[in-house]
Amino acid sequence: MKKKTYPEGAEMQDVACEQEMDGANEAESGQNAENANVSDNEGERTDKAAEMADSDKAAREWQDKYLRLSAEFDNYRKRTLREKMEIAAAGGEEVIKAMLPVLDDLDRAMDAMHKTDDIESVRSGIELISQKLRGMLKAKGLSEIDALGLELNTDFHEAVAKFPGDPENKGKIIDVAQKGYQLKDKVIRHAKVVVGE
Q: CA–CA separation, 151 vs 170, rounded Å?
């Protein structure tokens, strides 16, 4: 590379020009960097705005799903409650319909009691009605809980009193104050019993 020779004053001017050019280049590159930073910031703002819009949209979708699910569950709960009530009412109606013939028999027995003095015929009529009622209830799944002479079982029995007695009857049921019943496998009334001690 050839070195340029300049007159004495011109060399200083060249250096000054070069410095000005360097300063202008630096200023231009600084401006470009600043513009790049501004455009980066604008890009970041655009990205953040897009992310916020997406998250708002997702939040609205989840809220909508939650509201729908909540409404569906509420409807399900109301429907099952209504169905349970209908089943219970239908079950009660079925039992009452089955008891109507027994009620008719009781009415006839009451009329016969007032019209006759024959106690034996009234007694046998009442026994037949009792058997009919028990048979109907047994057909519906009702059964009596066995208690007398058994060990106390709190799943089926309720001890209402203790009575001192023979050592062989200790912890055993010696009397039944009130019969207990179970409907299929569910105890609906515990047997009230007296236990020996």
A: 9
pLDDT in tens, 35-46: 555 555 666 777
CATH of 143-197, one of 2.30.22.10, 3.40.50.1000, 1.10.1520.10, 3.50.50.60: 2.30.22.10
pTM, whole model, 2 decimals?
0.51
Task: Kindly state the tokens that stand for 16.
Answer: 């000054």
Q: How many residues appear in the chain?
A: 197
Encode pLDDT of 86-98 as tens digits. 888 777 788 888 8
Rounded Cα gap, residues 22 and 28, in angstroms: 10
